[in-house]
UniProtKB/TrEMBL annotation:
Protein name: 3-keto-disaccharide hydrolase domain-containing protein
Keyword Signal: yes
Keywords of the record: Signal
Extent of the signal sequence: 1-24
Length: 226
């Protein structure tokens, strides 16, 4: 009879734990499943999909403008969603249709990591604007202005996208590293190897919009690895 070593058993159990710990959850988004912070949430049908729409009813006091999913505790894994952003009709010239997904969100939103897109930049004639199509920020302490000034080009990148149309996004998170994929690409548009709130932070998953934006969200899937 073949002898099974302790090391082999350890590897087998480690592999089993890895495979069984991945818990995929597909979430049909509804306002009742979300806790809004400085945003309004409404159920809607948009571009052929059942979705939720986010807007800011008034001027926000900070960038923590997010609707957080109830009863989700996320550390490592993947988050997939289909999102759409566009400037509101009365938005200022700087509006870009900011829309994105926050993760590891603290219960009071005091901390969070965030990837978002600027859909109006995707096909702009200005190459610099194109280079700012995707963005990583971290709260508190690391808004886009600070990151762009101190480490230009490190936390934003180009990806093709169109305002007011559906854009598929995926976020892969492992400890202090996160990768952001756009529209089913096999390679990430943006890689962050130093998540600013640290590798141990865990928390909720949120739907985020920026100033002057109307955002739509659907097809949310969360896969937790721990």
């Amino acid at each position: 009879m073949k002898k099974i070593t302790t090391t082999a058993l350890g590897l087998s159990f480690a592999l089993f734990d890895l495979l069984t710990s991945a818990q995929a959850q597909e979430i049909a988004l509804k306002p009742a499943l979300l806790t809004p912070f400085q945003v309004s949430v409404a159920a809607t049908d948009y571009k052929g999909k059942s979705a939720v729409a986010l807007e800011m009813p008034k001027m926000a006091v900070n960038e923590k403008t997010v609707a957080v999913l109830k009863d989700i505790d996320f550390h490592n894994g993947t988050i997939e969603a289909t999102i759409s952003g566009q400037p509101q009709a009365n938005a200022g010239e700087g509006a870009r249709g900011f829309v994105g997904i926050a993760f590891r969100v603290a219960a009071d939103t005091s901390k969070m990591e965030l990837f978002y897109i600027r859909p109006t930049n995707g096909r702009a004639n200005d190459q610099v604007r194109r280079n700012h199509s995707t963005q990583y920020v971290s709260m508190p302490g690391f808004p886009w202005e600070k990151l762009r000034k101190e480490t230009p080009e490190k936390y934003e990148a180009y990806a093709d996208m169109v305002p007011a149309e559906w854009t598929k996004v995926k976020i892969e998170v492992k400890d202090e590293t996160a990768k952001f994929y756009v529209n089913g690409a096999s390679q990430p548009a943006l890689i962050v190897n130093d998540l600013k709130q640290g590798k141990d932070l865990r928390g909720g998953v949120g739907l985020w919009i920026g100033p002057g934006s109307l955002g739509h969200f659907t097809d949310l899937k969360v896969t937790k690895l721990d």
